[in-house]
Write a structure and sequence with these properties.
Layout: E1 3-4, E2 7-8, E3 19-28, E4 31-40, H1 44-56, E5 63-65, H2 70-78, E6 97-100, H3 109-118, H4 127-132, E7 136-138, H5 154-176, H6 178-182
């Protein structure tokens, strides 16, 4: 349980194909709470910068989704949500994206876009897709594509598999050794400590 493929959980995977558990603010309806989710290790500092930038601008960021399993992604598709990616390659499944609530955001959408962009997160480039899923931001530069077709390549699909695998390893540890797991959870939103913490995924 202490190894994800070829690396102990306490070490950062040298090829960057790993996720890290993070405690971040979520909004569900009118309720807000801190939840544990996962992001690609290369984005931990970016997420911290985004949340800090939002707070400095007077914002109150709350996520609705960060990491998704294939089952959670399919639930969104089957439930008729405004999901753009329906082919099993969503950046949420790689830990490379988040959806943010516009409710009580505290900053304008333009300010949100600027703060996210300065930290490596961008909305979808296609205008019609962006209009369908405006709250979605992703680390576009980490989504590798085939130069000829423009579609995601084999390396990106392998990244999804690797990060899904390590998320499963973390969740097994979370169930069997909660105290040990919680020592590994990062809190990139250092300015926010007062919200209740959800122990469910």
């Amino acid at each position: 349980l202490t190894y994800a493929r070829n690396n102990p959980l306490k070490y950062v995977d040298p090829d960057g194909k790993a996720v890290v558990p993070v405690l971040v603010p979520f909004r569900a309806g009118q309720q807000s709470e801190m939840r544990i989710s996962y992001v690609d290790t290369r984005l931990e500092a970016n997420l911290q910068g985004f949340l800090g930038g939002m707070r400095s601008a007077g914002g109150d960021p709350r996520f609705t989704f960060v990491f998704r399993t294939p089952e959670e992604q399919q639930e969104q598709v089957d439930g008729g949500a405004a999901v753009v990616n329906t082919d099993g390659t969503s950046p949420h499944m790689a830990g490379l994206a988040f959806d943010i609530s516009f409710q009580k955001l505290g900053v304008s959408v333009d300010e949100l876009r600027d703060i996210a962009g300065s930290n490596g997160f961008r909305q979808l480039s296609n205008p019609s897709l962006r209009a369908k899923d405006p709250w979605h931001f992703q680390a576009t530069n980490l989504i590798t594509r085939d130069a000829r077709t423009g579609k995601v390549d084999g390396a990106y699909k392998a990244l999804i598999q690797e990060n899904q695998f390590q998320r499963a390893v973390y969740e097994t540890m979370r169930n069997r050794n909660p105290a040990g797991f919680e020592k590994l959870v990062r809190n990139p939103d250092a300015q926010l400590r007062a919200l209740p913490v959800s122990r469910s995924y």
